[in-house]
């Protein structure tokens, strides 16, 4: 198969993103950013001046360290990048699970496998964490966009033919970031024998080790991750209306707002213990987030969106310091709550949080993990680089630039190099 040089370069550098992601998952804590954003100097927030250099531009209106958005990145792949797929010989099925931060990785692996073995990919269903929490793909995502985006890469169908039973499919477990060697050794023989397979992707930090192997599938994986998923129009309408509501509540700051991934249930599980003298932790509670935002200069009237679905008493300290703090139940249109807030921790709620955090002016991850990593990816691609990681909160004199996410400050030009 012919290989475009851009495809190879994009593929190799895309692996850097997963190495970073794997290191974060393996450590299970935030990296404290010891170096400043490239080319940045401290901004004088108390005066009417703005100090800017290189990649950082702050707008100072006396209300906080708001940063200007950067340029959106353009995908480096085109239709001409890909050779036509082989004739389809069977089917690959799979399910999307665990939330949108996992969906994009599961789709990436399924596309790579289907392309390699020459199979037709069946549109997946979506399964939540609770029994019976199942949805059709088209309830959450735009199925026509998904099919069209993969045209010329693999064949995609919305359902299996009536004469084929899912009970006859062989279940094959594959590691996230599945390689060509793994497919050749552990997947393709089963596919040839059975004719149809059902994939189950598992996530392991061991699989995130750096590899020097070049693969023709890297560009397909990149396309699948960043070019296939768009929200269904109904879901997108809800997300847009909530963002518009948050912006209307923040007129003082030209509509800017902060999204904080802070979920009380996860904080209780993780206990938010420190992990060393540097102040790095796996998560931060409401009080720590409130003190962090005030310390780096955000005004008390700043509008804040929390991924916590419904208000919890432990969040009161945050609202005391930032009265304009809201959960989704406060900013979602009333006529949409029955459908989209029907149950705690539903797939709809996860998707809404993921996309609001991706589009906010500032993102603060209070919890480490894949949600943080993949929200960072979508933000960097769209030019929204202001991702602030709280660290060393007590007594630190560090400026806001010292709290930039390492995804942005160290590697963003490499991590998402399938865009240019």
Automatic annotation (TrEMBL):
InterPro entries: FucosylTrfase_pln, GDP-Fuc_O-FucTrfase. GO terms for cellular component: Golgi apparatus. Belongs to the glycosyltransferase GT106 family. Keywords: Carbohydrate metabolism, Fucose metabolism, Glycosyltransferase, Transferase. Gene3D superfamilies: 3.40.50.11350. GO terms for molecular function: mannan synthase activity. One of its GO terms (biological process) is fucose metabolic process. It comes from the Eukaryota. This is O-fucosyltransferase family protein. It comes from Manihot esculenta. CDD domains: O-FucT_plant.
